[in-house]
């Protein structure tokens, strides 16, 4: 019995040592992966990288990680318009089946899903912020975007009729959708009226409706779904064969 007790104590100590070594190894790997990702994506700050699954050392030996979570606080995505960028906030991606090289110089995930937010002030930069003519003597422009409830965006349109600005903007509810995997579309459910004046719908939609292309997301992930929320437009992203680094 004494020998068995000693054996159990030794095994418990060895398991404890293995767990400590495993956690030290995963912390080192997370730091290295975060540094590589920062350099690859030219990020201003170091992203959060969490390697899930236990034990890590057996995953390391196999060359494939079960799950890697990546968090980027602020990411500047492309817009398809040269140097123009749009800021994506709180980008979170969950990578599965990540194959990597031994020095972490390359890492590719079988699949990835995630979420992010585009603040309304960022999306507003795409809207028709300069006055546009919608009818003889009438100009209009978008001056505000906010949460309209039930997944809708409230678009505030300011109008000037015969040289006189209306006392307050007219609000319309708009639907948001993803188009072609890389574009957020904002489209008014119904066009507004200004002072009871009937305006050709197509003219008004040149003001109220707009699109924002978003490309160059990390690893080639693409937009999947979009919905209006309190702090901005929440997007869901997904991808396959997503390259984290290398």
Automatic annotation (TrEMBL):
Transmembrane parts of this sequence: 6-26
Alphabetical keyword list: Membrane, Transmembrane, Transmembrane helix
Pfam families in UniProt: LmeA
UniProt protein name: DUF2993 domain-containing protein
Organism: Streptomyces edwardsiae
Taxonomic lineage: Bacteria, Bacillati, Actinomycetota, Actinomycetes, Kitasatosporales
